[in-house]
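Protein modeling request. Please complete all fields; requests missing the sequence field cannot be processed.
Requester role: graduate student
Desired output: 3D structure, token encoding
Chains: 1
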Amino acid sequence: MSPREPADARWSARRSGVYRAEDARGLSASDAPGLDVVPVSLDGVDGKAVLFERFAAALAFPDWFGANWDALEDCLGDLSWRPDAGRLLVIDGFETLQGAGGDDFRVLLGLLGDVAQDWAAEGRAFFAIFVDPRRGLTLRDWNAAGA
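Delivered output (147 residues):
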């Protein structure tokens, strides 16, 4: 285990990725010690412009954030202005974006997966967990994945 690795194996960098959970129980700072836990509300988001605003606000992106997919990936891959810890993004209210048509939701999922892989390769935990009470997303279930 690296010095940056959380003590709780559930939050190991090796498990980094994009998941779904039926609710947000067990996804708070007290449940994930050593991680920077960030709630990201996508409630009512129907396109990428507002999506970028929500991520920028939740993670306090620097002024240089360019509000596009490449800039979102760059910021999520850097996060040097945040606490020096692994990451847990708890994302809720995604349904409007998912149902809006277009590729924005699919692109977001792919981007988050790529970022998680990059952080894991550096031995750092990065989790994006979508709160999905209807269990409609075809993502790995956080609880069934050995959490």
